[in-house]
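Now for a sample.
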Amino acid sequence: MKNVLSIQPHVVFGHAGNSAAVFPMQRLGVNVWPLDTMQFSNHMQYGHWAGSAIDAPQMMELVEGIGAIGMLRRCDAIISGYLGSQTHAQAVVDIVRTVKAANPEAWHFWTPVIGAGAGATVDEYLLEAMPAFADILCPTHDALQKLVGRAIETAEEAVSACREVLRRGPQMVLVKQLVDRNSPADRVNLLLVTEREAWMTQHPRYPFARQPVGVGELTSSTFVARRLNGDSLRTAFEHAVSAVHAVLKATYAAGRYELELVATQEHIAKPPEWLGAWSIEGTTERRRRP
């Protein structure tokens, strides 16, 4: 069984951070080691919350504790999400180095959460320093624009931007909420780019009164779990988007704000509607959806 160290905030009520990522990975057969960087009553989009962050040194102490019992060599991947301070970000860098020293085959999946209230200094550090420590980078469209310092309007421009980011260290970039002026407004676009491949897919956009939080974590965790279980890049990408669509469809139908993760656990494991990805490079023939 594969093991993932998931470094993200935790909410007691609802689904965000580790509270949105841990269960989907477990449901897909991956063992998760949650390292909760914050403990909040609920996510911040409610406008009121209680709780606090742990100290950055304690993050490292917890990982060193795992190393002391000889288990870090069994860590296959690290996921890191929202980081509320530069010291937390540096702690993640140190943790990634420590895990990879114990298991050089382990890889780091990083979601750069930019402009979410951590402050300009933290955002600048994340944009400049963190990509070099990520094997897989998972930005939103806006974060990708900030990473390359220019506007992106099409999928082809996004591919070029991703390839530019790849030269800074990551092996692949998975873009969430890609804005493509050539795509229908009622679709959400996602893009997966490596040096040799570029895959795009979509799922329907549901008209929620308030958009659910935790969709990004669900996307990331499902993709990581399927990759660790041996799926190809394309298949893991398609599974992640198909699972996200199933959860969003059920959440919207139920009139909920929080994601219906438990109710749709079978659909996370086996999505009822498979949303295929298509290559967006090469000839027109290759760009057609499969």
The radius of gyration is 18 Å. The longest strand covers residues 31-40. The mean pLDDT is 93. The domain at 3-287 is CATH 3.40.1190.20 (UDP-N-acetylmuramoyl-L-alanine:D-glutamate ligase).
